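Q: Sequence in, structure out?
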Amino acid sequence: MASKAGTSSPWSVGYTLRWMYQNTLKMSAFTASGRRVFDLGIALEGQAPGSVMAIYGNSTYWRASLPAASGGTRPITCSPSIVLSGGPGNGWPAFIRSQLSCGEYRVAGRQWIDGIDAIKITGNESHLTLWVSPATYLPVRLVAGPGTAQRQTDFSWLAPTPANLAALNVTVPAGFQQVAPPSQQG
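A: Exactly. Output:
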């Protein structure tokens, strides 16, 4: 994901990396040269649902509480768009199968993506193409947007080992100053 901000802007983002597991998300943004811009962590469930953001340009961070999530899974409905922030709550395979069965998306063939003979799925009313592994029905690649505004997301799936799950944690560097979250700033 590229930012339109000027090169002197502290928010000039060249690319992002996202880690997701169940209802936890971490997104790290970097400049095109690899300098860290920010880390954002969001936990929607657990003992303390909330978010933390470390901003490297001004050495600040904030924490915010979130309301506790209601138990259970969310119903899957037909939708012409896929929310990419954390992926579908019930899991990608169930979501993809549901969208195919209700006609929002259709299988459009196969294509080799990163060594996988992936199933190509397109949206009927959206500018979206998704390639999924035939073995797991997990996404391999997603391309969204019309024409030159297209954005590509490549997926890698790791086993939920303790070391891999540790990548979801946002560590605030020593010396960063805590500030109020954006919703609490005057």
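Helices lie at 92-101, 162-166.
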